[in-house]
Specification:
Structural class: alpha+beta
Helix content: 40-55%
Number of domains: 1
Shape: globular
Strand order of the largest sheet: 3-2-1-4
Strand content: 15-25%
Largest sheet: 4 strands, antiparallel
Number of helices: 6
Order of helices and strands: HHHHHEEEHE
Distance between the termini: 46 Å
Radius of gyration: 16 Å
Length: about 160
């Protein structure tokens, strides 16, 4: 059995390879890579302003040239391969998914959480980012978000505001 990181790398490589041979997917891949590379520079302002700037305008929303599942898989693959980014993989993945799924009119939210790490993890505070869709975690392993206290959600649901 392959280690989790190696398996994720193999899956990401296959997804990226498939995208490269199809012109509309290749164009979306290029946009995602450019978006991912620019992400670290976006965090020079308070988080609400950063998230507002990372949200596509209602005029930008469109039907993307592939199903939701493929958008998600391509965003995950780009996040997995941007290993030199100063952002953690969960934040890169969540923000890539968030932007491009919102652009495809899928009303996901980004959740930012924190928890106290136990001694086996080195102690301190750990953070995690994930998406929800209609209040339910969106393609997220429950073990990855359980135990985190939600610190910030974007955008706020109107009922929560």
């Amino acid at each position: 059995m392959l280690p989790k990181r190696l398996k994720r790398g193999v899956v990401a490589t296959i997804v990226l390879g498939r995208a490269w041979i199809d012109a509309p997917r290749r164009a979306l891949l290029r946009r995602m890579v450019a978006f991912s590379r620019a992400l670290p520079d976006q965090f020079n302002q308070p988080l609400p302003e950063t998230m507002a700037s990372l949200t596509p305008s209602s005029q930008a929303t469109t039907a993307l040239p592939m199903p939701e599942k493929e958008i998600r898989q391509l965003a995950d693959a780009v996040a997995a391969w941007h290993i030199r980014s100063p952002l953690g993989i969960c934040l890169r993945r969540s923000l890539l998914r968030y932007y491009f799924l919102r652009e495809a009119n899928i009303p996901v939210q980004v959740i930012f959480g924190a928890r106290i790490k136990d001694a086996a993890e080195g102690g301190g505070i750990g953070g995690h980012a994930w998406l929800t869709l209609h209040g339910t975690p969106y393609y997220e392993n429950p073990a990855d978000y359980q135990g985190f206290v939600i610190m910030y959600t974007y955008p706020q649901l109107e009922a929560q505001a």
